[in-house]
Each structure stands twice: as C-alpha cells, then as structure tokens.
Amino acid sequence: MHKVPLETVKVLVIGPGGREHAIVRSLLADPNVSEVHAAPGNAGISKLVPTHAINGNDPDAVAALATRLDVDLVVVGPEAPLAAGVSDAVRDAGIPVFGPSKAAAQLEASKAFAKQVMAEAGVPTAMALVAANADEAAAALDTFGAPYVVKDDGLAAGKGVVVTNDRNDALAHAQSCFDAGGTVVIEEFLDGPEVSVFVLCDGRNTVALSPAQDFKRIYDNDEGPNTGGMGAYTPLDWAPDGLVQEVIDRIAQPTVDEMARRGTPFVGVLFVGLALTKRGTRVIEFNVRFGDPETQAVLARLKTPLGSLLLSAAKGELDQAEELRWSKDTAVAVVVASENYPDTPRTGDRIRGLKKVDELDGVHVIHAGTKLDDEGKVVSAGGRVLAVVALGSDLVEARERAYDGVELVQLEGAQFRTDIAGKAARGEIKVSAAVAAQAGSASEEEA
C-alpha cells in the first residue's frame, strides 16, 4: 500500500487541456500538495508547474514517469488515456490513481455498454437501440421518430452525436460511423434543460460536486455543430433543491454498485449528463472524467482542498474525506475557440492580451489549445484555445466580468458564444413539475 502523510502529496496530472489547467491550479492551492507535475501540459500549465513531453495516452510511458518522479497520486484528465488503460498501468506500479480502469472506462468508451449498465442498475435514461448497418439504423430512426439522435458508439471527443429533424442527415451520420468500422446508438430525443453533475467515486462511495450547465453547440442560441463545449456556469439557481441527492440515489450510487458487482470498480469522476425532461430526470450519457469546460467553472468555486479529496477517492477512502465547501460566488467560463473550429481549426496564431485579462477583478484565464513558440510566445495549438473564467456575486456580475475578459483576448479569427448563461441570468430556464417532484422526494428522504 502506497501510504503517504497528507502534508506532502506530490501529484502528476495527465492531459493537455483546459480541464487539466484548472485541476493544476486547484491542486496548487491545496496546502497538502507539495509539488505538481503535468504531462504533456500546455502553455498555461507550463508557467505553473514542470511539464513532461510524453505521450499521455501511452500507459507504460505514464507509469514510468510517475515512478521516476516518485509521485503519490496520478490524476488522469482526458478520456483517451483512460480508455487506453493508463490508470491500470499506474496502479500496477503501486501508485494511487484518480481515474477509472480501462474496463470501467467503457462507461464512456462504449455508449452501448453504458446503456447495458444503466439497465442493470435501474438508472433512468433515454430508450435506445444499437444499429450495426443502414437497415437497422433506418428501423431504429423510425421507431423513435424526429428529432433523431444518433451517437457514435465509441469515443468522439464530444462530437460524435448528431441531433437533427432531417432523417437523411441522421442516416448519413450513422453511415459514416459504419464506414469507419463502428456501430451507432439511436435514442429517443430528451427535451428540457441539460445539467452536468460530476460525482467523485472511490469504487464504493460517491460525492457529488456542484451541478453546472455547459453549451455544446458552436453558435449562439444552440445553433451549428456540436463541439467539446463553448462555455459553462455554476451553480444552477433554477435547479430543484433535491437534484444532487436524486442523482446520487437514483443514478450514481446504483451505477457504482453495479460496476463493483461486475468486478470492475469505478474510481474517478462519473460525469452524469442529464436532461430534466417533462417525464423527469433522465441520463443523456456518462463520461468517466471531469467535463471540459464545466471543470473550469466548478473548481473555481470549490473551497475544499482538491488534492486531499482526489487522493481519498484514489485510495478508497472517500467516506473519510472532509465535507465539501463552496464559495458563495457564481462562476462563468466562456471558451475562445480558433477559426474553423470544430472542423479544421486554424492554429499557430499569436494570442495577446492574456495578462490584461488576469488583472481584472475575479477573472482568470485557463489555457486549453495553447503552446509556446520558438520565441516563448503563446500561440494557438488547438480548436478550443482558452477559457475566460470569472467569479461574481451573481450570474449577471460573473457574466459581465467573463465577457469583459473575452474582449481583451486578441486572437485572429477567434470565435466565442455571446450567450453563455444568458437565459439563466434572465430567469428564463424552467424545470418540469415531474423533475421538481422527483427532486423533492429525494430531498425529503435525505432529511
């Protein structure tokens, strides 16, 4: 057993994006964390901690680095290394890791597998059919009717889902997945506002973080293609009081119990993507890692030391972790993406104005697709380049601060949404009576 006194936790964070930058920032704020390393990191992360240029998706390379650095905890950010078995290799090296095994990561790596687990665990979700060819896809589409929801069964970095009223478009997306050797999951459409809840799991116990809402489409008013996420905010003042308890009782805990029963205990973040529909709360999908960009907003409000929390989860001791404490502030994150994202993003452009953003009250920049060029200047290196994260006394103030920051970012061809958290700030999000009633009963049972 890799035992370590709490006051000297040395952590290695795997991943190159905004989620990892936010995690690194929070770890550095934990008095129990003595040292943080990242691999491969990005331009923002490299200004804070030592970075290591390894392939983060290579289990042996990550395990070797963790062993060489003699770290006490490895935190795996993205889904690809988890699906590749990075956590297994690190665990085999005797080092605690926050992130599920390859077997448990199937909850995200295969939509069909996730549906099977949800069915076994009695988790409320959309009805779905798996299709392996055009005839099966057509039959499934006709079973559920429009709007059509077609999901690539495998990992697609948040972009493998098509929701459309055009049957031909739905069939075309399915065919592109078949042509690539995959299968698709076709589902009934879930109406109502969407919510992201991150649940920390240690294989047996579950602790939910504050719910957030993210914005998947590239353009304002939820138009255009899906992206990895263009912004997020938290907390959700419009969500019913008992929602988090309902997520634990009806979704997260039954799923964790089912995974343990199967002999593949789930350790890490179970990211529960929900739709609050007319018929009640339903799971849209599971992910097996912190969401990006929701993490940037959620961690900005978390007061509980993150390193101790993640180490408790990695060691199966989440039931002994201290209770979560949150800032009273509201957090808004707005993503600045590069030209042509999400298709073929333009990269290599200088990014200016970042110091000015960081000087604003309650505002900071989280780097995602950035790197340092030969002259040490920050340039774009991906589709979603950065997020401007702001804290404010309420949603209106947090939004104003975030967009003041976005205006200072200079990146040629940059695109961002102007309506992140806009509806919520105007009080325009409504929850169905069924959702409110379910959450209310969860709340009463807890009391």
Automatic annotation (TrEMBL):
GO terms for biological process: 'de novo' IMP biosynthetic process; purine nucleobase biosynthetic process. The keyword Acetylation does not apply. Keywords: ATP-binding, Ligase, Nucleotide-binding, Purine biosynthesis. Residues 115-315 form the ATP-grasp domain. Its EC number is 6.3.4.13. The keyword ATP-binding applies. One of its GO terms (molecular function) is phosphoribosylamine-glycine ligase activity. It catalyses: 5-phospho-beta-D-ribosylamine + glycine + ATP = N(1)-(5-phospho-beta-D-ribosyl)glycinamide + ADP + phosphate + H(+). It holds the Pfam family GARS_N. Its cofactor is Mn(2+); Mg(2+). NCBIfam families: purD. Belongs to the GARS family. This is Phosphoribosylamine--glycine ligase.
